[in-house]
Amino acid sequence: MRSFKIIITSFLFLFIFQIASAQQNTREIELTLNEAIAVAQDSSLRAFIEKNEYLSDYWDFRTYQADYLPTLRLEATPFNYERAVREEYNSQEEEYQFIQNESLNSYANLSLTQNIPFTGGRIYIDSDLGRIHNIGGKIEYSSTPIRIGLRQDLFDFNWFKWEKKTEPVEFERSKKEFFQSSQEIADNTIYYFFEMLFAQIELRIAQNDFTNAETLYNDGLRRKEKDSISLEDIYSLELSLMDASSALERAESRFRRSQTRLLSFLRMDKSLDVELIPPDEIYEIDIDDQLAIEMARKNNPHILNIRLNRLYAERSVEEAKKSRYSADLSVSMGLNQTSDDNRIRSVYQDLENQQRVRVSMNIPIIDWGLSKKRYKLAQSNQEVVMARMEQEEIDFDENVRRTVEEFNMQKKLVERAAKADTLAQMMYDVTQQRYMDGEIDIIKLNSAQNRKNSAREDYFEELEEYWEYYYEIREMTLYDFVNNEELSIDYSDIFQADILNSLMKNSVN
């Protein structure tokens, strides 16, 4: 892990240094595939979005964890003034009367609450103090110095129990998805990199074809003076020169567009002139499909998603089962006192016991089988989910196996394409020399040129597919098959960067 971080840091340092030097001079830089991927994983818009989505999931998980910690809360109404005419019943006169009321009230409650995950209940201890000042009359105090209570659902669905099962898995999935996104960014980088690389190769081919067409046309004009070439061939050479000129203009336009797209994806200065270095060196490895499946089942977030879907289905069955009836228990015990002698300390003397017990129930007598239908429906949905998840696991394993097989085969295709590219270039050189010597006509030369260009394009297409398969397997398994180790990431670096960015924003503001 440490060596991997050092390598990546070195890549970024050298790359940034290269950019700085280029900006001071010609603003030209060379860029390899590995450098482009490192920049994209660090600075692209997709990397920024994925990082913030992970941070959001992280704080959601921290919120879940906080639900299982004691909560200290102060509830207070320090000032509540009321002056109004209210209707009240006078028991002495046995009639309702309108009475002018003016009062100033205050209230405070300090409570410590703890959720009980295993039962779904809540235990608490609190203390409160109230004051009523009837303006023009007396001042009264009421206090509960201490009260201990329990609130417990007796038969209801226990959300705390299921959260303890699902929330850690959801957060682990979020971590894996964030890590996997870095490999998806690599896949996206490959697309933009090779799009520009193809345009760069096409531009070089077009430049070379134009130079060759111009040379052949000038040579044809010289041979015409010696009557050693037909007029038909001269026209053909001139037409080839015009086609090469048009092809060069189109290639230059495509190259500029593809370069802009790559620089935009990497969030780099669009005024840079980039020279891509083809990733010709491929790894001499054959991936074992069983190892790939094992690592994918261990690290891929899709497997965690399958596990979560099974838990959700199981949770729905239990929720439907326990929603048929409900009952809850509320118990509290404490000490309290009241006083109307204008002295607050009186409410803390000669305390009296306070007990409260409440049981409430909600039991449907006749619901025409509605609760049973919900329960059966949840069971049926669970069976469907289980069958679907089992099939997804089978399809997942097969997809990994097929991708590994295609990758192992792709290495051979790249080697064959490289050899074909070399042979096509050698054949063209020989054919061009034979044409210059007057041994063959222009048709065979054009055919050799087209074959050379096609072989070159085929080679880089096979090379692109090789790297796509390679990073797709890394994305599936989160495993480095070159160094035979699991890919890893230091999540603390994300928070350190987030804190640093926050501090920089605050200092600017």
Automatic annotation (TrEMBL):
Coiled coil: none annotated. The keyword Metal-binding does not apply. GO terms for molecular function: efflux transmembrane transporter activity; porin activity. Residues 1-22 form the signal peptide. Keywords: Cell outer membrane, Membrane, Signal, Transmembrane, Transmembrane beta strand, Transport. SUPFAM superfamilies: Outer membrane efflux proteins (OEP) (SSF56954). GO terms for cellular component: cell outer membrane; efflux pump complex. Belongs to the outer membrane factor (OMF) (TC 1.B.17) family. This is Outer membrane protein TolC. It comes from Tangfeifania diversioriginum.
